[in-house]
Amino acid sequence: MNVTTSLDLPRISASDARWHSELFGVSRRIPITIDGESFQLSFHQPYECRTNTTDIALVCGEITFAISFPTPHELSSCIRLLEDSDWSALPGALQLAALEAAFSDTLDTLGNHLGRSVRFEPLPSREQANFTCQFRMTIKATNWNQTVVAEVLTDDSGIDLLMHFVRKIPPVRNRDCADIVLPGFIEIGAITLPIADFRSLKPSDIILLDLPREPGFDAIVRFGLSISWHVTLDDGFVTFQKRVAADGVSQGAFAGPRIALTFQDGEVPVPLDELATIIPGMETPILPTDGILVRAQGQPFARGEIVPFKKQVGIRLRSIIPNHLIPR
Q: Using one digit for the tens of pLDDT, what is the confidence trace for 273-284?
């Protein structure tokens, strides 16, 4: 049986201080070809992060498929993780092994590019109408507790990369400070990276980015907690969408460069400044080490409230610095 597939995975990011995330993002479609017949498989994907003193494991959650065949040439799937679903019957002719092989081959390719362990685990069916699959991907953390997780697809035109920088942020308490620390994430998409640069990229490397100045904003930027982006091959420019969410908001403050956001009726204008003006010459890289610092208007947000936002910003890739050269 000839099985080929390409993955268009949802962008997913760590969420709260307990390192357990609900789903943030939308469905994505996976083209699958089985014995010459092409199908589309769409799904949602949550995940969970766990950390200890030595490593960080990313568990790309459970993916539950509801599959039907309206025609012999169409594979349709609707994944519902956050609401009830009307599951279609799973045809006996569909071979789970074929789908497992498709995912496994792609993930093996992914692991070969990044030099890390990738494991695919099919889970037993909960009922006849659906089945569940699980991805597990692990990278050894560096001595400053950074881990890089990526899904990669390679073809003749280039490489698509979805990467997550994750670090646990301990809460910092300061009763005299009105700022709010969000144990949340920033989501970045659609970065452009030359293929030659990508092929030299290792999980321990850091990508430095130039951010353009945005008039009217009043603070500087430091990436925090989780950064994810989707790489496409273009001219070196990128556009990215950012989103902040919090579960367990606490008061506190960070030293050094930080993100300060102002909430207005649920919308968040993002204060940006050029990183080169924050850190002259970019000699000290912006590391995903600090959380997201938010200066709220009026009362702090209630504990557990999730505050999303999106904004389009253009940035240019500055450089890639090997991990061992990062100043300590």
A: 322 222 222 222
